[in-house]
Amino acid sequence: MSCGPLLVEHLGRGAKGIVAAAALAEIGPPAAEALPVLLASPLRQGSEDLENRTVAEDETWLDACAQALESITTP
Q1: 19, 65 in Cβ contact below 8 A?
Q2: How many Cα neighbours within 13 Å face the side chain of 66?
Q3: Which of 6, 29, 41, 48 has the most Cβ atoms closer than 10 angstroms to its Cβ?
């Protein structure tokens, strides 16, 4: 089973990135192809437009990435 490029493509800032990371967490180990992108992407929501970002959004992003990494790497 492949997670396909669509989820990996949407990993990143904003709500789409959080949903993509959550979906990868649901897929688990079969989503291993997403690991390089998860590990290489900045685990912060970014500094551009920082005034409109909240700590809660940033923490949600961190949690989503951590859950995806844990789920994918745990058989």
Answers
A1: no
A2: 7
A3: 41
Number of other residues whose CB lies within 10 A of the CB of residue 57: 15
Note the pLDDT of residue 29: 93
Q: Residue 70 CB: number of other CB atoms within 10 A?
A: 11
Answer left, alpha or beta for residue 46, where phi above 0 means left and psi between -120 and 50 means alpha: left
Q: Please report how the helices 14-27 and 55-73 are oriented relative to each other, as an axis angle in degrees rounded to 10.
A: 20
Residue 75 pLDDT: 78
Cβ partners under 8 Å of residue 31, min gap 6: 3, 7, 24, 68, 71, 72
CA dihedral over 13, 68, 28, 31, signed as positive or negative: positive
Phi, psi dihedrals of residue 55, rounded to the nearest 5°: -60, -35
